Amino acid sequence: QYVPPYTEDCRTGMYPPSGPTFGGAVTWYTVNLDLPPSKRWTELITDKKNDLIIMVQAIKDLADALVPSGRLEELIDQALPLMIDTLPYPFNEEMKGIATASGVPLGEVILFNIFYEVFTV
Amino acid sequence: CTSLVAEDPEGNLIHARNLDFGLFLGWDKKNHSWVIPDKLKPLVVNVDFRRNNSTVFKSTNFAGYVGMLTGMQPNSFTLTMNERFSLDGGYIGILEWILGKRDGMWMSFLTRSVLENATSYAQAQKLLSDTKLLAPAYFILGGNQTGEASIITRSRTHNLNPLELDIKQGRWYVLETNYDHWKTPLFLDDRRTPAMKCMNQTTQANISVQTVYDVLSTKPVLNKLTTYTTLMQVSKGKLESFIRVCPNPCMPW
Q1: Which terminus of chain B has a smaller tally of CB atoms within 10 A, N or C?
Q2: A68 touches chain B (CB under 8 A)
Q3: Full pLDDT tens readout for chain A, 121 residues
């Protein structure tokens, strides 16, 4: 695994982060676990909903590339919501709240949250 | 992904990770970058989960994702997970779930439950080692005492060859990418060797948040799939994250 310039000597002095490998700081949010699960993510999702919509669209484009007929996307939007109540509480309720706060269809929020298992396919 | 837990000469534990995701899910020719990491970066947030007005745990998340990939229960333990590939994979777990066999846990809901409810490194280790999963995974766990760090290699049903820190034997850090630690990584994707070379070059005497960040900034440990780097110091209750970019020339994974 020594194929310069794709690999390099050990870097030094990179912290505090700056320069071409630093893509920006990360914003802090608070999630209040005393709130009902469906309300916990509202503030954060309200801030990030446009980015979430763009992300979900990228996954849908991928689904359409895999199955051009659009059947896979239909399956996501119609079948996945049927499984929401088989997912453990409070995560199922939190996902419903995220769908409500962002306007993203529940099936797509579910797919985003089980993507780790789905991706192994 | 690359996750590591290192112990400095004073017995402080540093847990850090690069989150790499989105392989083969679309390439942006114009920007010479993967589509999914580019869409994930704006969603990266740090979250302080609070109950009764005090912190229960902190995490680095993708907005909209309620599970956990990177988190810390301050002064108690730190946890990251890396993807593990296996033929007995998540699709089998999902099939079982659909057919009504629901005795396994979805990976990210388990990590969320552990960060929210476990009360010690030992309890977290037990939950992550013994709970049946829908998909295989690597859990990298750090505690708050000297010697408390382990790589938990999980199949859907078993914990395989757990690896722990062993200061006396000279193992002052544990490091996991996406290959079983007892096997050599795929030569086309060996990020373990360069990362370990840089850790060994740093030496335990000089390990710190700063030098760990240097290791995670060295190509190919830093690559086109890297979305963020997180640094955690459990004894200070400190978690910090940074969005990453890998300028050309850079390994695609």
Answers
A1: C
A2: no
A3: 677 778 899 999 999 999 999 999 999 999 999 999 999 999 999 999 999 999 999 988 888 888 888 888 888 889 999 999 999 999 999 999 999 999 999 999 999 999 999 887 6
Residue with tokens 């396994």: B104
Query: SS3 of B187, please?
Result: helix
Q: What CA–CA distances, in Å, run from B159 to A3, A112, A116, B126? A: 34, 27, 19, 10
Contact by Cβ (8 Å): B138, B151: yes
So what's the ipTM on this one? 0.95
Chain A positions touching B17 (Cβ under 8 A) are: none
Instruction: Find out whether A1 and B194 touch, Cβ atoms under 8 Å.
Output: yes
Report yes or no: A28 at the B interface, CB cutoff 8 Å. yes
Angle at B120 between CA B117 and CA B121, to 5 degrees: 115
Asked if A108 contacts A76 with a C-beta cutoff of 8 angstroms, the reply is yes
- The β-bridge partners of B46 are A28, B60
Enumerate the residues of chain A whose CB falls inside 8 A of the CB of residue B217: 11, 14, 21
* Residues of chain B contacting residue A102, judged by C-beta atoms under 8 Å apart: 64
> Sheet of B238-244: strands edge to edge?
A22-25, B238-244, B226-233, B13-20, B2-7, B173-176
Neighbouring C-beta atoms of residue B196, cutoff 10 Å: 16
How many CB atoms are closer than 10 A to CB A8?
A: 18
A32 shares contact with chain B (CB less than 8 Å)? yes
CA B124 from centroid of its chain's CA atoms: 15
B198 catalytic per annotation: no
